[in-house]
Amino acid sequence: MVQAASELSQRVERAVSSARVVDIHTHLYDPSFGSLLRWGIDELLVYHYLVSESFRAGPWDYDRFWSATTPEQAEWIWQRLFCDHSPLSEAARGVISTLNALGLEPRSRDLAALRQWFSRQSPGAYLERVLEIAGIESVCMTNSPFDSEEVGYWNQSPVRDPRFVAALRIDPLLLDWSNARRTLAEQGFQPGSGRDKTTVLAIRRFLEHWSKRIDSRYCMVSTPPEFSYPSDSDAAWILEHAVLPHCRENGQAFALMMGVRRAINPRLRMAGDGIGPGDLRSLAALCAAHPENRFLVTCLSRECQQELVVLARKFPNLHPFGCWWFNNTPQLIAETTTLRLDLLGTSFTFQHSDSRVLDQLIYKWHHSRRVLRDCLVGAYSRLEDSGWRVTDAEIGRDVRLLLGGSFQEFLAGAEHPGLPKKLAGIGAA
Ligand code: FIX
Ligand code: ZN
């Protein structure tokens, strides 16, 4: 019996560790976007997850921290989180796992030596090495037409690396219409003065222009707990009249990341966002009212995970994905994944990395793969106890589905019959 369990766990381990991942949401950029693709030890250390943790670990002085250079901030964080304390948190342990997988020696606590090693890496070769160690087939970027720096790169018609797939991010359009209106006008898409046809057409032209320009695979927004649908908000009106029709007609899924309270401590800047339960009755209303739209959804709050899974059982046009941000801890990934496997089988996407720094792909996927292995061993053991036997090929198929295959199938289903197969083959080089 013990032997059978360890044999099963080895078979699952082989499948999980060898599968290539389609990472469906990151904040990484195509290498042709130059310095927008961040990498290296200092960038790892100034990750916003670690910034907020470091402020708990010593006297805080926001102004001093933010007026320091990146290397100075990195030294401050290294001292507080890695030298004065043990790096026990998930994000701090992630730096150690990353260095370790790269063959470096973090135990010496020698930041200068680590920096020297990184300074000797050539960006192109380093990119290949990271993608190889992390087992990545492709990553989805987060591409904002409201970010002037990013728009500058797109306007130079960059030569794209096909492993970096675009996703159109539209938070300001839905959540900050008065400023978004200005951006649309500046870019030559003149909206009307109110909620009228001219405004709808301008937004539709804007979305079409950017979807084509970046060749996006889906359209995405993150929403606060207060987001509701139907409602008389700008967000609900724009969604209903412009965004969802655009997605339907252009074969784009619509991704919602629900339950973030932005800037609850603005002095922490990007590290100052919080959490609250998303309104999943609104999600149910969206899925019911728009059966021809496909919704990719992740929830930030632990309390929402069960409701999200139950909604997915009711609405085939809803695809849950990832264990987002404050859920990206071994314990919560295990809990959420077991729940999803028990109620959805493999019809969800196990995880996305949300990496902001290239090297983070290594630890985020190493850590998540370990949890996936344990969840699957548990699920297959229960299945075998019930009288089923899974083959290696079936285990490989299931793992591929969970690591991006289900997402690809979901997107392929989003294709409009009249459109070319632009959504198929995402991740295929
Ligand atoms: O909205 C998002 O895409 C979030 O993932 C980010 O805003 C957040 O800062 C993050 O990096 C979480 O992992
Ligand atoms: Zn993100």
Main attributes of the structure:
TIM Barrel; 9 strands; binds zinc ion; disordered C terminus; globular; 18 helices; 429 residues; alpha/beta
The set of bound ligands, ions and cofactors reads: D-fructuronic acid, zinc ion
General form: globular
Query: Reading side by side through the largest sheet, how are the strands ordered?
Result: 1-2-3-4-5-8-9
Average per-residue pLDDT, rounded, comes to: 95
Give the SSE string: HEHHHHHHHEHEHHHEHEEEHEHEHHH
- What profile does the largest beta sheet have? 7 strands, parallel
What does this structure look like?
- The strands form 2 sheets. Strands 1-2-3-4-5-8-9 form a 7-stranded parallel beta sheet, with helices on both faces. A two-stranded antiparallel ribbon has the order 6-7.
- It has 2 domains: 314 residues, Metal-dependent hydrolases (TIM Barrel); 79 residues, uronate isomerase, domain 2, chain A (Orthogonal Bundle).
- With 429 residues, the chain is α/β, with parallel strands linked by helices.
- 52% of the residues lie in helices and 9% in strands.
- It contains 18 helices and 9 strands.
- The structure holds D-fructuronic acid and zinc ion.
